[in-house]
């Protein structure tokens, strides 16, 4: 009971902070999509890393050495991702944009659920699955071609032009972040007077450092995450709670203040 009261108080504080702010930016991680059925990497029970060594299967080096191992690992994740629907947290961010508060979403996710929920300005720091690139000749391919090869035919997609494997445009360990998205995220981070961080362990650098940098540039922070993060002590409001119901409650509360 005490816990519920504490959470509802924090929901009120979060809504009030949003109302006072003029440039709100959201920063999301895999945890915002677990309620859509997509496992995250580090949660104790569901995390994908409890089963595999990501530095091996999800690194550029690993992909070049053994693209089949990468595709065998990513196939179930791709399958659930394509079947997933946005949840209340994604929709709440779209609503915050509609209300004129949220200016952009910076996401580490590759699942494209923010866009599907209706957010219009989304910076995907770790790429997406809309396209793939040949690692031999860098020719671009439509994501559907890559997905059909891996999901329908159980194949590694090879470039028809040069025979090298095609990698989906998701960022693997050992790769640079996409330049344009990262620059835009840095710009948003500097402009933000409030950043709402949702569902990220903040352990993957450099993307995970963005909330800390936003704080150093003067932004206030709201953190919605089931587990503690390294930035909790610097945040104005910390909600260790489910992203969907919490974000929905914050937006509902905000709407009563308008
Ligand atoms: P992470 O797995 O490191 O951390 C997820 C955090 O979310 C955890 O701290 C967990 O406690 C919290 N969480 C889980 N479910 C939650 C919920 N319903 N409500 C609130 N909090 C919840 O994720 P990360 O920080 O994004 O970093 C991992 C990397 O994983 C990112 O680079 C991302 O690209 C990649 N990834 C993406 C997806 C996706 O696109 N959906 C899925 C898995 C991994």
Describe the structure.
This protein is of the alpha/beta class and about 260 residues long. It has two domains: about 160 residues, TPP-binding domain (Rossmann fold, 3-Layer(aba) Sandwich), CATH 3.40.50.1220; about 90 residues, SIR2/SIRT2 'Small Domain', CATH 3.30.1600.10. Helices cover about 40% and strands about 15% of the residues. It has ten helices and nine strands. A six-stranded parallel β-sheet has the order 3-2-1-7-8-9, sandwiched between helices. Strands 5-4-6 form a three-stranded antiparallel β-sheet. A hairpin with a 5-residue loop joins strand 4 and strand 5. The chain starts with a helix and ends with a helix. The mean pLDDT is about 95.
- Numbering strands along the chain, what is their spatial order in the largest sheet? 3-2-1-7-8-9
CATH homologous superfamily heading of the largest domain: TPP-binding domain
Q: Strand pairing plus helix content: what structural class? A: alpha/beta
**Strand count:** 9
Taken in chain order, the helices and strands follow as HEHHHHEHEEEHEHEHEEH
List keywords for this structure.
258 residues; alpha/beta; Rossmann fold; SIR2/SIRT2 'Small Domain'; 2 domains; 6-stranded parallel beta sheet; 3-stranded antiparallel beta sheet; 10 helices; 9 strands; elongated; binds nicotinamide-adenine-dinucleotide
Give a summary of the structure in a few sentences.
This protein is of the alpha/beta class. The protein has helices at residues 2-20, 54-57, 60-65, 67-83, 88-98, 113-117, 143-152, 179-191, 210-216, 243-257; strands at 24-28, 102-107, 122-124, 127-134, 140-142, 166-170, 194-198, 220-224, 237-239.
